[in-house]
Write a structure and sequence with these properties.
The chain has 119 residues and is mainly β. It has one domain: Sandwich (Jelly Rolls), CATH 2.60.120.10. Helix content is 4%, strand content 45%. The protein is built from one helix and seven strands; from the N terminus they run H-E-E-E-E-E-E-E. Strands 1, 2, 3, 4, 5, 6 and 7 form a seven-stranded antiparallel sheet that branches. Strand 1 and strand 2 form a beta hairpin. The protein is globular and about 40 Å long.
């Protein structure tokens, strides 16, 4: 049992769209990721996905509306809902999601990260 300094953990990596595990709660991971540019449209068939913006501004496009997140705000994308995260500038996010959640959802692409490193 140790406390986690999120700012210090973000200093340990530079790549975008590659989540890192920084904690576990039951069957859930606490992840950090740096985002820049547009990701892929995708959905998670069985899992909700929570985006908490630590630094920057994030757009989450849904098929019927856009959600803008500022620092200190979060949004939960319900399972089954297609979404497209877009970061015009680098954004730091904290993600809370089940351990089974792939970053690309049901789509397997060159951006899929199956084995997440722990920081």
């Amino acid at each position: 049992m140790e406390k986690v300094n999120v700012a210090d953990k973000f200093k340990l990596f530079h790549e975008h769209w590659s989540p890192k595990i920084v904690g576990e709660i039951n069957d859930t991971y606490v992840k950090l990721a740096k985002l820049k540019g547009a990701f892929n449209w995708h959905h998670h068939e069985h899992e909700d996905e929570m985006f908490f913006v630590v630094k920057g501004k994030l757009l989450i496009k849904l098929r019927d509306k856009d959600i803008w997140l500022e620092e200190g705000e979060f949004f939960v994308v319900p399972k089954g809902v297609e979404h497209l995260p877009i970061a015009e500038e680098e954004v730091h996010v904290l993600l809370i999601e089940p351990k089974t959640t792939l970053n690309t959802g049901t789509e397997i692409t060159n951006r899929t990260v199956k084995d997440l490193p722990t920081l």
